Each structure stands twice: as structure tokens, then as C-alpha cells.
Amino acid sequence: MRAFTTEAAGDGLRTVLRPVRAGNGFEEALEQILQVLRLGLVPPGERLPAERELAGRLRISRVTLRDVLKVLQDEGLVESRRGRYGGTFVRERTTARRDAQEELRRRTERTGLEDVLRFREVLETGAAELCAGTDLTAEQRARLRAALQTTQDAPLGDYRRLDTLLHLTLAELAGSPRLAAQYAAVRATVNDLLDCIPLLVRNLEHSQAQHAAVVGAVLGGDPDAAREAMREHCAGTAALLRGFLG
């Protein structure tokens, strides 16, 4: 079995696979390879480009790439084969999986994925910036620290609920009830979409580091840093949602 190389795939594969940003390397690499699979640039039964080629094109470490490939394998999208003609091969989609993906696509179209993601980023980054520029009381600062701590201690089954509470706390402490209400509404939609994709430990590790950076910037009174840390956090979630549902 030959490898389905970048040259064999033509311009499509070269266009899709591009260097990712360091802050969300795992999420953006997963998004791009999922797009390759959705577009059929590497057909079922063919082998993905070698790890060295993929890692080089995406500019990520081999360790990060293997984490990405493990997710794809767990989702039944690819399989790993050993030996001289081994590698990572694209699997044929089952009828059940095709039906599930079509339902997700219809749900995404109804929701308006890009609109939701853009609106969420505007609200989240604005709330973080406002919080960092606000003279929070000792009680408010303690609430924010406690909300962060609960996400760090959360078992997987409770993570998304406690993650939501942290973000709602930031929105509330921004000092605009209207912003908080709008954020609560858009977050409910985001959670519906997140429930359609797997909970990935590597992504949660990134999220926790980004949460800590946002809260640290808010408590340190640095609006620019708070906004940028939240923008990066939103971008990571957006990359996963676009990858699985786009």
C-alpha cells in the first residue's frame, strides 16, 4: 500500500495543511486533519502522509501529532498498522457514522456555527477585558479564584458544567447585566455543540492553562493580557468545533 503523499493529493492537501499557532497547536492540528478527512483528500483505505511530513507541515511536535492521531483512532476515523507497509490509514465510514455526521451537520447549520463562535468571542474577550479593568472587591476576587479552582479539581463528568460556571462568573463580574444575559444565552448554544464532540484530555489541559492565564490577568489588573488570553482560549474551542462539526 502506497502512502497518499502531499504530492499525490495535489493542491487540496497542501492548502488545508498549514502551520498552526503555538497556543492551540493540538486543537488546530486536529481541526485541519479532520478537514482533510471530511473533504476526502485522503480516500478510505489510503495512508495519511508520514508523521514526519505531517508534523513538519503543521509545525507541531511528533508527540502532539500522535495525540491528534490517537483521537482520530478513538473516533474510528483512522487505524494504525505496523510493519514495513504500516502507517495511519483512513477507515471507511460506516452507515451509522455517516448518518450521525449528517445529523450533526444539520444541527450545525441550524445553529449557525460561525455566527455563534464569533459572537461568543466578542462577549468573552470583552468580559475578560472589562473584569481586568474593574476594581473587584475582595469577595469578587475570591469568587473568581474559587470558580477557577473548581474547574481544576473537576472530574471529567462535571467539567463542562463547572467550566460554564467559571465563564459565567467572569461575565457577571464584568459589571454589565445585559452582557451576562447575552453570554448565558450563547453559552447554552455552545454547550449544545460541545456535547456533540468528544471530551479530550489534551484540550482540557490547554483550557486549564488558558483559564489560569485569564484569571491571573484579571486579578493582576491587565485588560490587554486578559483579552488576549481569552481570545486564545476561544480560538482553541472554535478549532475543535469547526473540526468536528464544520
UniProtKB/TrEMBL annotation:
Q: Which InterPro entries match?
A: GntR_C (IPR011711), TF_FadR/GntR_C (IPR008920), Tscrpt_reg_HTH_GntR (IPR000524), WH-like_DNA-bd_sf (IPR036388), WH_DNA-bd_sf (IPR036390)
Q: Quote the Pfam families the UniProt record gives.
A: FCD, GntR
Which SUPFAM superfamilies would you find in this protein's record? Answer: GntR ligand-binding domain-like, Winged helix' DNA-binding domain
Q: Where is the HTH gntR-type domain?
A: 23-93
Q: What UniProt keywords are attached to this protein's entry?
A: DNA-binding, Transcription, Transcription regulation
Q: Which domain of life is it from?
A: Bacteria
Protein name as it appears in the record: FCD domain-containing protein
Q: Which organism is it from?
A: Streptomyces synnematoformans
Taxon lineage: Bacteria, Bacillati, Actinomycetota, Actinomycetes, Kitasatosporales
